[in-house]
Amino acid sequence: MSAPEPVSPLARHLTAGRYGAPGDAPVYISERQCVLVQLFARKGRGDDVASAMQAGFDLQLPSPGNAASAGEITALWIQPDAWMLVAPRGSEGALAARIKAACGDAGSVVDQTHGRTVLHISGRRAAWVLAKLCRVDLHPSAFGPGRVAVTPVADLACVLHHSDAAPGFDLIVFSSYAVSFLESLTHAALETGYDVA
Amino acid sequence: MIRIDCPYCGPRDEVEFAYRGDATVRRPSADAPADAFYDYVYTRRNPRGWHVEWWHHAAGCRQFLKVVRHTMTHEVRQVAPATTVVDVPSE
After folding, report:
1. Which GO terms describe its biological process (chain B) (predicted)?
2. ipTM associated with this complex
């Protein structure tokens, strides 16, 4: 029996429309429907996991503070010898099973699709809005596309990924905190105005 | 506010870390007398100067780090992964 389809905790909290201050540089806030899989190398097996992912997915696992992509899968570094793998929604648990099959006993694989929620914020002033909530320097000279930081955002544990050069950021938070997180994010974005797609 | 240059994540603010005490204490052997265990658990030097201490990057990469901090000025001289042997600076 398969688990039920993931239900977004934000389903009733993200209503399309334009909010906050009027202006010509709003930020855009949306939820991304993703499959999230956490991959931990077992003790001393980091190189084995890296070569297994290279062989099985043609994916070179990223170094600290970075992201790497291969096909539809993006790997985010979250701690030494551990990565968060992000992919478009597919059948429940399929990606986790494929990764586990590739890594064997060198890695531990946990499907986090239900456990985490991914918000996306983009627009010219996205970094300016995020800077109110997080302590990492988001200036383009310090934090560019492809960078990842595990850091509190709005005092909640978050994986912050500079996912596109637009600029756009993915914010991966615990699903149980997603509503509270969205409230902080939209409050910070009132000043620029924000658009929910 | 202390800035700790995590060897994995780069410079981060103190609020992301949890202080975990003196990193120079060593657990006595299992057959050591009770006094040795009392010292191990409770007795600390409280120096005025350089101190090697554990900080846990709890809200970041979740690694334990050794930090060399000056207890008067809060200057951080060195941050290293947990397995690194770090000497207490004399000056």
Report:
1. tetrahydrofolate metabolic process
2. 0.88
